[in-house]
Specification:
This protein is 81% helix and 0% strand. The protein is extended, with a radius of gyration of 23 Å.
């Protein structure tokens, strides 16, 4: 709470704020950051192994193996979400499991599973893209802005 807001509190409210802050559970921020780093890194290492599998055993190059690798990670995430494993995994890993593409697939699949009783069109289809829609829109807009900046720099700056 800001100092200005604390000045506007009555003495009883200030006493309560002190009481509440003394009993607030301290979060292990450093420990959570380490877990997120390790789990996120492990997901990326798994992705690297999958990519190496695709260009070693199939007719992919290192550049073209990226698309099936991402698709495989999404399928794994959706299957683990369906069985309830990814949610427990996410509680342990925190942002480490939420930041990669697997976290995005988990959020879309979770919304679909949660609203399946409302029907396929209005329940699953309508609610599954509540989160995904905003991510897709802002991702597309960010890509447009970056492409525009790149084009302007290329035309005027000689990149």
């Amino acid at each position: 709470m800001s100092d200005q807001k604390k000045k506007n509190l009555t003495p009883v409210q200030q006493k309560y704020q002190k009481f509440a802050s003394d009993r607030e559970v301290k979060r292990p921020v450093f420990k959570n950051c380490i877990k997120a780093f390790l789990v996120g890194g492990a997901i990326c290492v798994l992705g690297q192994f999958i990519q190496m599998f695709y260009y070693t055993f199939f007719d992919f190059t290192e550049k073209t193996a990226g698309d099936p690798t991402v698709a495989t990670l999404i399928i794994i995430s959706v299957i683990l979400t369906g069985f309830g494993v990814y949610d427990r995994f996410g509680q342990f890993a925190g942002a480490g499991s939420a930041v990669p593409v697997t976290g995005f697939a988990n959020s879309v699949a979770s919304a679909a599973i949660e609203h399946r009783t409302e029907g396929y069109v209005l329940g699953v289809g309508g609610n599954m893209f509540k989160l995904a829609g905003s991510v897709i829109v802002f991702g597309t807009f960010a890509a447009f802005v970056i492409a525009l900046i790149h084009t302007m720099l290329t035309q005027w700056g000689g990149l």
